[in-house]
Amino acid sequence: MECDKKYITIQQLEQHNKAGDLWVSINGKVYNVSDWSKYHPGGETPLLNLAGKDVTDAFTAYHPTTAWQYLNKFFTGYRLKDYEVSEVSKDYRNIIHEFTKAGMFENKGHTAVFTLTSVAAMFGFVFYGVLCCNSLWVHLCSAMVLGMAWIQSAYIGHDSGHYIVMSGHGWNKFVQLITGNCLTGISIAWWKWTHNAHHIACNSLDYDPDLQHIPVFAVSSRLFNSVTSSFYGRKLEFDYMARILISYQHWTFYPIMCVARVNLYIQTLLLLFSKRQVQDRTLNIMGIIVFWTWFPLLVSWLPNWSHRVMFVLTSFVVTSIQHVQFCLNHFSANVYVGPPNGNDWFEKQTNGTLDISCSPWMDWFFGGLQFQLEHHLFPRLPRCHLRQVAPLVRDLCNKHNLPYNSLSFWEANELTIRTLKMAAMEARDVNNSGVSKNLLWEAVTIHG
């Protein structure tokens, strides 16, 4: 009966917002997930970022209907007294309900099969070109194909990380380890750790790791205040070196993207051999060993060091296309400071995300992530449906006066460079940066 129900306020819920005392609300019911957070398949970070808040939209976006049955064991017996649902959240949940009824989350299409087949064919070409030919041009062509194979492998790794490639959890994990760790050398554990936090805290300067690139890049002058990263647990220092590098970031962006893959290798190793809790650490390390066995052996088969250096650099340069794309989706969108708020899930995703418009025949090239907003709103939706649902998302944005940002690849590049240049110019301004001038600064920027 209604009189037997126990209630707490939103303010009381917000007090349970830390590890060991972590409560959340879903559909107005309050759950204690303090102990469960350590075993959460998506990692502890997403729960910590939304601790003490209503997480209905985020939970609905990330979990199938079968997950709801497991909530009862975490129920505290409390409900939110002042629980309300915004009109945009109502529409958003209705859309997810319609997708579920239509079976769209389970219908994965044949994209993964086609992509895996093409990846296998590309790797076959690469090995043939390196092992059976001596021509420099064949080796360079093989390197370009290897770069493209890495790009497509990363897309499959991304999709399997969201469990939208195979039907079973175990098979998805198998695909994650093969396409991520074994083929690309990038740990799926590292990817899930950062990517889940990115989705939950999309474009928060202090909570989203995908925007925390100081001292190399800064998308907003608010990072010049040396904000503390909630994700990494350390201060993002805007010091002399950061100021110099960021002042020229609109020039260094593309060159750095050409070798950005090296940073991903480093981040993978730092996580796997850290003291952090890492799911499937042993399997991830074994997968990385596979990569660092076959790739050096392949490169060593090339006839001389000039071929080897050009082969590696060429393959990295090709993958820079994907690194650039990831930046285009968010670098020039709106940013904010502070934790995400579960009550404005839809609004935060639309404000912090940019789509790349392209013809349907180019969907394979962008791996479905040209529909970045659609993916952020429906991360469980297989990529074969993203183009189909894009008009629905656009209509919902128009209905609630929210931005639906979609630009061509070229236009998105222009906007990203303008954003980086704007922050670079502000970094040069001592009054905005708060970092005093010195002789080194004057020498480097005198002609800047």
TrEMBL record:
InterPro entries assigned: Cyt_B5-like_heme/steroid-bd, Cyt_B5-like_heme/steroid_sf, FA_desaturase_dom, Fatty_acid_desaturase
Keywords: Lipid metabolism, Membrane, Oxidoreductase, Transmembrane, Transmembrane helix
Subcellular location: Membrane
Record carries keyword Transmembrane: yes
Example GO BP: lipid metabolic process
Cytochrome b5 heme-binding domain location: 5-89
The keyword Plastid appears for this protein: no
One of the record's GO cellular component terms: membrane
Gene Ontology molecular function: any one: oxidoreductase activity, acting on paired donors, with oxidation of a pair of donors resulting in the reduction of molecular oxygen to two molecules of water
PROSITE patterns reported for this sequence: CYTOCHROME_B5_2 (PS50255)
Transmembrane segments: 111-131, 137-158, 251-273, 285-303
Pfam families noted in UniProt: Cyt-b5, FA_desaturase
Family per similarity comment: Belongs to the fatty acid desaturase type 1 family.
Protein name listed in UniProt: Delta(8)-fatty-acid desaturase 2 isoform X2
Gene: LOC107923462
